[in-house]
Amino acid sequence: MPKVGYQRIFVSYARRDGAELALRLQKDLTAEGFDVWLDTQRIGGGASWTAKIEKAIDRAQVVLALLTPGSYSSEICRAEQLRSLRKDKCVIPLLAATGSDIPLHLEAKNYRDFTHKRDYAARLQSLLADIKARNGIALPPSYRATPAIYITAPPTVANYIDRLEAVRALRDTLFAEDGHRDIALTALEGMGGIGKTVLAQTLFKDEVVGQAFPDGLVWITVGRETRSSKPSRRIVSTSTAT
Question: I want to staple 149 with a disulfide (CB 3.0 to 4.6 A). Which of 86, 135, 214, 216 is the partner?
Answer without folding.
Answer: 216
